[in-house]
Write a structure and sequence with these properties.
mainly alpha; about 0% strand
């Protein structure tokens, strides 16, 4: 019984950490895109729709491939990839900070 409770606690903790990372990623990326003048308004709206549908923690190579598939112009694509990479780092730092404080 004690082992089961321990495993359940670990699973819940892992899910909580993952949720914090994904929420931080979505919030950071959305804020960065909204504040960056290099992102055109149509592209900003398109990315906003995608973020509202949900976000996954993927590599910048996967983001690049998805942007190519969506026919995003290269100048907009480069900006979005940079903003995504920064948002990833901020989300991970926030998660590490939250774990250190708990």
């Amino acid at each position: 019984m004690q082992n089961t409770a321990s495993q359940l606690g670990a699973a819940i903790g892992t899910a909580l950490v993952g949720s914090i990372v994904l929420c931080g990623l979505a919030a950071s990326l959305g804020t960065s895109i909204a504040a960056d003048d290099r992102v055109s308004e149509p592209l900003r709206q398109q990315v906003g729709i995608v973020l509202e549908a949900g976000v996954s923690f993927v590599t910048t190579d996967q983001v690049s491939t998805a942007l190519d598939t969506a026919d995003v112009p290269s100048d907009g694509s480069e900006v979005l990839i940079d903003l995504y990479a920064d948002a990833q780092l901020r989300a991970l730092k926030t998660d590490c900070w939250s774990l250190a404080c708990s």
